[in-house]
Amino acid sequence: MDEVDRKPVPTRIHEVGKDVVEAAFRVHAELGHGLLPRVYDTCLTHELRERGLAVRRQIPVPVVYREIELQTGLQLDMLVGECVIVQIKVGERLHPLYEAELRTFLKLTGYKLGYLVNFGDPIIKNGIRLLAL
C-alpha cells in the first residue's frame, strides 16, 4: 500500500462514522442478510436520519479529465453528515475491487472517511470496512 501523508480525521467525522456503524448494526439486526441493496439503503437512510444526520443518496461523482469535468455515471451510494461516504453491498464477501472503488471515491471527492457495508454477510461486523485518507 502506498504511504500517504495522513492528517488526523476530525472528531466530528469519527462521530458520524460511529453512527454509521451503529445504524448498520441495527438495520442488519432487524432485517438479517440477503435482501436487495435498495432495501438496506432505504432502511439505513431512515435510521441515520432518525439520529439527526443529513443523508444524501445516489450522488453523481464527476471525473476531471484533461481539465474538463465529465459525468461518467459514478455515484456515491450515500453521503452522511456531508462528511462520510457509505457504499452498500450485498454479497457473500467484500471483493477487493469494492475497496478500490471506495478509495477512488475518497480521492475524487476529497472526503476523508468512507465505509463499505456488506449487508450480505451473516455477521455484520465482518461486512464493514473503514477506509480513511
Give a structural overview.
- This protein has 133 residues and is an alpha+beta fold.
- The chain has a single domain, classed as Trna Endonuclease, Chain: A, domain 1, CATH 3.40.1350.
- It has 3 helices and 7 strands, in the order ααβββββαββ.
- It has helices at residues 11-31, 37-50, 96-109, and strands at 55-60, 63-65, 68-70, 75-80, 84-89, 113-118, 128-132.
- The strands form 2 sheets. A 5-stranded mixed beta sheet has the order 1-4-5-6-7, with helices on both faces. It has a two-stranded antiparallel ribbon with strand order 2-3.
- Strand 5, helix 3 and strand 6 (113-118) form a beta-alpha-beta unit.
- Helix 1 crosses helix 2 (37-50).
- The protein is globular.
- The protein starts with 10 loop residues before the first helix and ends with a strand.
Write a short abstract of this structure.
The chain is an alpha+beta fold.
What structural keywords apply?
Trna Endonuclease, Chain: A, domain 1, single chain, two-stranded antiparallel ribbon, alpha+beta, 133 residues, 7 strands, five-stranded mixed sheet
Question: Layout of SSEs?
Answer:
Blueprint: H1 11-31, H2 37-50, E1 55-60, E2 63-65, E3 68-70, E4 75-80, E5 84-89, H3 96-109, E6 113-118, E7 128-132
Parallel strand pairs: 5-6
Antiparallel strand pairs: 1-4, 2-3, 4-5, 6-7
Helix pairs in contact: 1-2
Q: So what's the CATH class?
A: Alpha Beta
Structural class estimated from helices and strands: alpha+beta
Mean pLDDT: 92
Radius of gyration, in Å, reads 15 Å
CATH architecture: 3-Layer(aba) Sandwich
